[in-house]
Amino acid sequence: MPKGIDPWHDVSSANRKVIDKFEEDLTLREDRAETTIKGYKDTMIRYARFLGKRTFQDVVDNPEIMNEWLLHVKSNGYKVGSRNTEKTGVIVFFKWLNKGNKPECLENVRFVTKKQAKQYEDPEANKKKEITEEDYQLMLEASVKHPESLQVPAMIEVLRWYGCRPVELVSMNIGGTGKDEMGVYITIKHSKTHTRKIYVKDYDFPHLLKYLDKHPFRGQPDKPVWISYYKREKHLQRLDSNDVYQRVRRVKIIAGIQHKLNPYSFRHRCMNYRILENGLNVQQASYFFGTDINTIMQNYIHNKQENYVKWLQNQNKDTDLKPSYNELEEEKQKLESEYEERFKHLEEKMSILDSAMARSARQHKPEINNEKIIQDYYRLREGLSKVYNQLLAEGKTDEAEQFRQLAEQGLT
User: Fold this and answer.
1) Which of 101, 200, 312, 385 has its CA 20 to 30 A from that of 267?
2) 387 HSE (CA, 13 A, CB side)
3) Is the Cα dihedral 283, 289, 291, 297 positive or negative?
4) Three-state SS for 258?
5) Residue 213 burial (C-beta neighbours within 10 Å; 0-12, 13-18, 19+)
């Protein structure tokens, strides 16, 4: 909703009283999360604006009004998931209005299944929900031109690297945000699922840490991180989720980005990055993002096959895969064929050397009468043979041949 417009505009006083009573009763039951109740309330405010001067009881008495609303929602650009969300709030409200019984006006209010949704939506629709790295950099650069130039770049960083929902973002307190030896952390207090403390180690958050360092509530752990700096009735008060949408929208305009983006675009990007590129498994991602595994796989992971192939290729680059038996056998045959002639040549040289050394020994042995000299002679010959074999084993064929010639001359 555009900034400055009262959400209750065009809602009759009678319908407003019923919606307030509905919110009060759900809150007293304590069986639904605060964010869920707020979602139902927002849905019924939109429904009341559709009704105009007609009342909710008119809808119960005349089911055709509900059919008009169903056509209105479908023709006004609501995606399948958004239509289901609106229908959920309407069903809960009219059952409450009818004392727990399902009124006839809900007969045609049906949900679209996931299988049907896949047929209706553009196959590339989920991919379009994700912000690109180029868009993120443009928005980060543009955010410093926002009037709240310290806060908004920090907000863009947190949305991108933590992927939290807008309502979770605004629940952050000073005491639950900071940096320690494990990385930069935030604490989500209000969520659809559970309170959680989550860390990021692969980004240093220069804008967030600078913002916290200069925060007017620095050192006050129970104060909100995200506050309004406009000098109006909300001055230094906690922002709400609508404020997050407004700031993202304004930064998008400053950045010159034409296509649709909102805070959930960052959530889509972050979830794909963490799982497909950063290696977070789905169980860990379920905790990190505060949602269930099925929702992650159905709504957030885009281009599953393409990304899997890309991941597998990257894995193979970093992993020494063991060769198969056939590959080893081919390599063996290649080596044997390449070095067979060389081995034969070396064997011939060894044979010649042995013959030369034996001949030399026969020629000189009779002339030697000293027993110690004879022992030294054979010891020297054995040592020379070991050196020659060592040179061959190391592949130093030329050096071995030179050594053999010198040894033979020395012995003779």
Assistant:
1) 312
2) 15
3) negative
4) coil
5) exposed
Which three-class secondary structure state does DSSP give residue 323? coil
CB atoms within 10 A of CB 193: 14
Domain residue ranges in the chain: 13-121, 133-318, 343-411
Per-residue pLDDT tens for 385-407? 777 777 777 777 776 676 666 66
Report the predicted TM-score, pTM, of the whole model to 2 decimal places: 0.50
Place of tokens 């928005």: 139
Torsion of CA 397, 402, 404, 407, to 10 degrees: -150
Q: How far apart are CA 211 and CA 149, in angstroms?
A: 9
> For residue 183, what are the β-bridge partners?
180
Residues contacting residue 349 through CB under 8 Å, at least 6 positions apart: 400, 401, 404
Identify the H or E element spanning 158.
helix 151-162
Contact criterion met (CB below 8 Å) for 343 and 394? no
Q: What is the DSSP string of 18-61?
A: HHHHHHHHHHHHT-S-HHHHHHHHHHHHHHHHHHTT--HHHHHH
- According to CATH, the superfamily of the domain at 133-318 is Intergrase catalytic core (1.10.443.10)
- Measured distance CA(77)–CA(391) in Å, rounded: 81
Q: Cβ contacts of residue 64 below 8 Å, gap of 6+? A: none
CA–CA gap between residue 270 and residue 206 (Å, rounded): 18
CB 133 within 8 A of CB 189: no
Task: Please give the Cα distance from 281 to 278 (Å, whole number).
Answer: 9
The beta-carbon contacts of 395-398 under 8 Å, at least 24 apart in sequence, are 397/342, 397/346
Tokens of 126: 């989920």
DSSP letter for 322, please.
P
**Count of residues making up the chain:** 412
Residue 123: what pLDDT? Answer: 47
CB atoms within 10 A of CB 125: 14
Q: What angle do CA 269, 272, 275 make, to 5 degrees?
A: 145
In angstroms, the CA 244 to CA 155 distance is: 8
Contact 185, 199 (CB under 8 A): yes
